[in-house]
Amino acid sequence: MDEKDLGADLSKVLIPEDVLQAKVRELAAQIDADYAGKDLLLVGVLKGAVMIMADLARTLHSHASMDWMAVSSYGSGTKSSGVVRILKDLDTDILDKHVLIVEDIIDSGLTLSWLISNLRSRGPASLEICALLRKPEAVRTEIDCRYLGFDIPNEFVVGYGLDYAEKYRNLPFVGTLAPHVYGGTGG
Ligand SMILES: O=P(O)(O)OC[C@H]1O[C@H](OP(=O)(O)OP(=O)(O)O)[C@H](O)[C@@H]1O
Ligand SMILES: Nc1nc2[nH]cnc2c(=O)[nH]1
């Protein structure tokens, strides 16, 4: 989709496609170096992490297995409820595995905070986070994120996996949703 063809719902392109892809290559190089000689399991958090997971996984030089979890914390709006439910669990037993959670965004941090304690209780050899985006002004619980793409302002963003009411996930860039669309001031 053309970055200039924003339509009325998006106010601006926050992170263009080429900048996203350069960051993916940077993150993949760090991950390759850190996990050299280890079996790595990438755990993508559906649905938002689909794009970063797919791009990251195929940019890695080393082999990595992939699994997915789906959790729900947002309902249909733009604020985290803080109540997390597992909608789809892992197919893999992660005991003694090197697990890297791949997320699109850390907003309040509530989803990842819950996910980390859930996965840690399963006894992985290691557990780290890779998140494409983080909103420092919105964080309600600090997340130790080993691999981070970008810190962004506290605005509701869409594209590259991120949706508003299931729209915009397939934009190849990250854009800011115009406040008139959701009537809000933040994420
Ligand atoms: O840090 P938090 O405030 O908890 O927000 C982050 C979570 O919100 C988004 O998921 P969402 O619940 O929108 O589901 P989706 O990935 O299926 O769109 C995103 O993918 C993270 O999982
Ligand atoms: N699409 C989208 N989902 C989110 N989940 C938490 N924060 C956000 C955000 O800014 N945009």
From TrEMBL:
Question: What are its GO cellular component terms?
Answer: cytosol
Chief place of localization: cytoplasm
Specify the Phosphoribosyltransferase domain's residue ranges. Answer: 22-164
Q: What is its EC number?
A: 2.4.2.8
Query: What is one Pfam family matched by this protein?
Result: Pribosyltran
The processes (GO biological process) annotated in the record are: GMP salvage; guanine salvage; hypoxanthine metabolic process; IMP salvage; purine ribonucleoside salvage
Stretches that traverse the bilayer: none
CDD domains attached to this UniProt entry: PRTases_typeI (cd06223)
Per the similarity annotation, which family is this? Belongs to the purine/pyrimidine phosphoribosyltransferase family.
Family matches, as PANTHER family: HYPOXANTHINE PHOSPHORIBOSYLTRANSFERASE (PTHR43340:SF1), HYPOXANTHINE-GUANINE PHOSPHORIBOSYLTRANSFERASE (PTHR43340)
- Name used for this protein in its record: Hypoxanthine phosphoribosyltransferase
Naturally occurring in which organism (per UniProt): Actinomadura harenae
